[in-house]
Design brief:
Blueprint lengths: L2 H16 L38 E4 L14 H13 L1 H21 L5 E11 L19 E12 L6 H67 L5 H15 L1 H19 L22 E4 L2 H4 L4 H22 L4 E12 L11 E10 L7 H67 L5 H35 L4 H12 L2 H9 L2
Parallel strand pairs: 1-4
Antiparallel strand pairs: 2-3, 3-5, 5-6
Length: 507
């Protein structure tokens, strides 16, 4: 290839590149919502349950941290959650999918540059001189010969209407979607790990409560037997007390099964087989209920929640698809060049007389395709409209979830206070009824009825306390404290394509 031809080709590339434009809409992120609160104006959001229980308050406008579970101040819980982040296979899969999406960005960006290849070939040929306008007798050509060729080829398709840039933009948006999916997997994993730990603690509290109830049953049975031996109560009272003890003992296997399920689920979350790992014996008393709950403003929540960010990334990808479909309606130009050597035998391949070169350009203009390209563009527009509706619905669902959890925490505080009060009264009632029964003032049914009220109040108090922890967990997860922000530098260190991907997204 001569220097002049190289200059001509370079000039053509620059001229085409200078006149390039990017068709399709430029994506603009949706505007932040104008709402300033989550709950309705008439709904209470006071979380104080009284002096007998820990107090909670909402700190509006504060962002939850990525390691949100540390607010429970449990070293055992911290260790378990970190082990889950390290060992969970679903989370590992999400990280691998993000890495694959980042590499797809780099693969798509390669279309912006000339493609250079090196080829070598050997062909068996027969040439007809008449095909070149020559008389057969005027040239001396062998009837059959071998042709050896080698050399580089260069091809370049200028992105005149921005179709390639839109494809890169789409891949960046899809990589952002996978990043948000990673954040969602992180929140789901950490939320489930904390939830199962609380379940373990709650079930163990129920086991203790059942043991307490059975102890009272045995004390009552001993009291009834003493009265029976004294001749003050009939045999039926003894049978009734024994029946109550037997009934309460049957609660133990079901609660034990709940504990096994929670422990097994926690092991699986850590990527371990239940037979290879056992969780710590969590206790509700070893957890500290967060006193201040960080709650982001609605306008900030849309930038923190991974499900909302994932919906925005899908909207961005749908916008880029409109540009891709639009660019397909316009002409495309391909420039190519090759230089190499050809000879009838390998020994003359590097002979200067065997030098061959070519330079070419091609233009493709869609004329008629049965309406395919126009239909693809209309489909892209419809998909963008659907993605926009999906985004708005995701935002509404998120606001609804936060409102539900805030109200749940308010009601949890009220319920816990009432359950504690009911438990105190029920315990006192059992004490008084036992005294009256020993004096012969009441029958066995009154004593057992008081005991059943105590049993219900004790289990209700445990459920109310555990539910307060669970709803606190839901609120912290709903605020969207993701893994990406807390671990971005670590991710870049282990996967350097992350920074390169962001550079392409800014072009």
């Amino acid at each position: 290839m001569t220097p002049r031809s190289i200059r001509l080709m370079g000039g053509a590339v620059l001229a085409v590149a200078a006149s390039a434009c990017t068709v399709g809409p430029n994506f603009t992120p949706p505007a932040a919502p104008v709402v300033t609160r989550y709950t309705a104006p008439g709904e209470k959001t006071a979380l104080d349950s009284g002096p007998a229980t820990p107090r909670q308050s909402v700190v509006l406008g504060k962002k939850v941290t990525g390691e949100w579970w540390t607010l429970f101040r449990s070293p055992e819980l911290d260790r378990v959650v970190k082990q889950a982040i390290t060992g969970n296979l679903t989370f590992e899969s999400a990280k691998a999918r993000l890495a694959a999406a980042q590499e797809s960005v780099l693969a798509a960006s390669g279309a912006l540059y000339p493609q250079v290849n090196f080829g070598a070939s050997v062909t068996r040929e027969k040439v007809n001189a008449a095909s070149f306008g020559l008389k057969p007798d005027s040239v001396s050509l062998p009837p059959n010969f071998n042709l050896f060729q080698l050399g580089p080829t260069v091809s370049y398709t200028p992105d005149i209407f921005g179709g390639t840039h839109r494809q890169i933009e789409q891949q960046v948006a899809l990589a952002d979607f996978q990043r948000d999916q990673l954040d969602a997997a992180y929140l789901t994993l950490t939320g489930n790990a904390v939830t199962q730990a609380i379940q373990v603690a709650a079930v163990r509290a129920q086991q203790k409560a059942i043991a307490d109830i059975v102890t009272i049953d045995r004390q009552n049975l001993e009291l009834v037997r003493e009265q029976h031996d004294a001749g003050t109560v009939p045999d039926s009272d003894v049978i009734t007390a024994q029946s109550q003890l037997a009934t309460d003992v049957t609660m133990q296997p079901g609660v034990d099964q709940q504990l096994s399920v929670a422990r097994h689920a926690l092991a699986v979350l850590l990527g371990r087989a239940p037979g290879d790992w056992s969780p710590p014996d969590f206790d509700l008393g070893g957890l500290t209920l967060p006193g201040q709950l960080p709650v982001s403003l609605p306008s900030e929540l849309v930038h923190q929640r991974p499900d909302i960010q994932a919906a925005e990334a899908q909207l961005h990808a749908a916008s880029a698809q409109i540009g891709i479909a639009t660019a397909r309606l316009y002409p495309s130009i391909t420039l190519s060049a090759s230089v190499g050597a050809a000879a009838l035998d390998p020994g003359h391949l590097f002979d200067p007389s065997g030098l061959i070169w070519s330079i070419a350009s091609g233009l493709t203009q869609p004329i008629f395709d049965g309406g395919t390209r126009q239909a693809e563009r209309r489909a892209a527009l419809a998909s963008f409209k659907a993605s926009a509706a999906d985004y708005q619905q995701t935002v509404l669902d998120a606001f609804g979830q936060v409102a539900d959890v805030l109200q749940a925490l308010t009601h949890d505080a009220e319920l816990l206070a009432e359950q504690k009060h009911a438990l105190d009264l029920a315990l006192e009632s059992v004490r008084l009824q036992r005294i009256d029964y020993a004096r012969g003032g009441i029958g066995i049914l009154n004593l057992l009825d008081a005991q059943r009220q105590y049993q219900q109040a004790l289990q209700g108090e445990i459920r109310a306390e555990a539910q307060r922890y669970l709803d606190t967990t839901q609120l912290l997860v709903a605020m969207g404290g993701g893994w990406w922000d807390a671990s971005e530098l670590r991710l870049q260190a282990t996967n350097p394509t992350g920074e390169r991907m962001r550079q392409f997204s800014q072009q």
